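Could you help me review a protein record that somebody else here produced? Do not assume that whoever made the record got everything right. The record follows directly below this note.
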Amino acid sequence: MDHRRRRPEKRALANDLAARLREVYAEGGVVQRSQGKWYPGEPLPRWQIAMQWRTDGRPLWQDPALLADPWAGEGRDTAVADARALAERITQTLGLPDELLHPAYDDPLALLAADLRRPEGPRPSVDDQAITADSIGDLDRDVTEPVAWVLPLVTGEEWTSPAWSLRRGRVVLTPGTSPAGLRLPLDSIAWEDPAFAGEPSYLEAGPPLAPQVPTVTVVPPEGVPTTALVIEARDGNVFVFLPPTERLEDYTDLLRLVEVAVRRLRLSVVLEGYGPPPDSRLTQLVVTPDPGVIEVNVQPTSSWAEQRELTETLYAAAREARLATGKFDHDGLHTGTGGGNHITLGGVQPVDSPLLRRPDLLVSLITYWQRHPSLSYLFSGRFIGPTSQAPRFDEGRPEAVYEMEIAFAEIARLIAEQSGDDSGEGEDGPGPRPWLVDRALRHLLTDLTGNTHRAEFCVDKLYSPDSSCGRLGLLELRGFEMPPHPQMALLQALLVRGLVAMFWDEPLTAPLVRWGTALHEDHLLPEGAIRDIEEVVADLRSHGIDFESSWLDPFTEFRFPRIGVTRAGGVELELRSAIEPWHVLGEEATAGGTSRFVDSSVERLQVRVSGFDPHRHLVTCQGVPVPLTSTGASGQYYAGVRYRAW
């Protein structure tokens, strides 16, 4: 894919892929097209296509024909009238008086200010020096066509509709091109913000869902949350902007309310706005853009059969949508897409997460990954190192290993205290506190800038007391790149499943390793990485897990492709590509501000010789002898050589 995130062709391909996945998984569900993530440095937020369905098999949305695709073609001329009719129908369905439904208008003052900033030419009809309270009213009256319709609506145990009364006598949207639901003048509704009611806990799912149209009470606006349902005509389609909800019951009731009104009017609408709160009673699959790729956040699976079926279906759907899971560089090298194949571990609901029930499992995984660098480098993308998207915790600072040892010791001590058993393995006590691993490891599992998301082991959504959406019991392993074949993706998952099973039965208490420069000097070469991953396979097999080392041959060949082989007398010389860290350079001024580029000009290869006698033979590079290291086999040596590729 093109590196730009908002390319129209990219959106069309993502839409095609989402439609294919919806046919397989989201039957009886809804499609919500709304604003995605907004990362620092990006001029606009990303779009996303979220498909949601109930895990109990019951339909979340009865008639899929009532959901429109805004990117599938031309809209209809009646969209403005349809939006008003739908807004009025929803208000009537809730039994609310008509005056609670507010037409929303663009701000004429913003349009006037834009005119005044224009260069020499025809002047605006109203002089900016003559603007008074009365003239503002005149400007408002000149704008007669509403942009959207706003129905104040607060969900919860009891639904309410605040009777908004604004100083300008109408809802005037803040300037911009975003959906009207994101441009509401929320600071114009009341003098005081509503009191903070606390954050909900999503540790456990609620009872079975029974969506219905609730009863709504009219209340004054003071002290009430400023949320609203917004209906807008845009590009020939009717958009329904859903307000934020804290309970899944409220979200499904909103969908039920909208569908009842839409069915009566025989319309089709586009759902946008806020998505559902985290809840295991609802499953979600999201398609969104990322630089160079289309990102697919797939739904969780609870068995190997489900994971295999999902992976194979995703690869097949991508191929049918004319999307590839690999690419070729200018020099012909076959590589991954550059996108992540991140593996997320957790439970059906947060309270069931094995990582919260057994913090020693996370400690074992981090320890094992640190002791076996091949797990960090064999399955990763080309961008590795301390400034990459998923750095090891010991790559950035030499003291990080010492600090991690202290954190591990504290976790073991607190587990023992909280379980009431000196060994830390008792099952009769209250168990470890769920926030234990977050407080102990959050500031260690980061990149060099302290970013907790850009880490090999990302605990952002494990159990952070700071945010309800961060308490999902999930661990994200970010060191895996999207491989070109589904069986390779499944092999990555199988390896992780095997290690989790091994450490669940027998926690690892081995010391961490001070690798020093050997971390990059040895394990970024094929010889070191392959030797290390064979030790991992041996550990799995010694624990009764029948994992074959030959299964990893596609990864070693894909990660370290052979460049060529030659013979000189009885000596064989083989060249293979190796891994070279890409480091971030200093900031440079660009058109959009400042940017930090990555130096990818240096590459590395491995030289391996067989039948070599160091007393008789010599390997040189541009006349300089290459220092060789024995592989342990007779007459076999290897070395790494860096070179400037461009």
User: Anything to note?
Assistant: The first helix runs from residue 8 to 25.
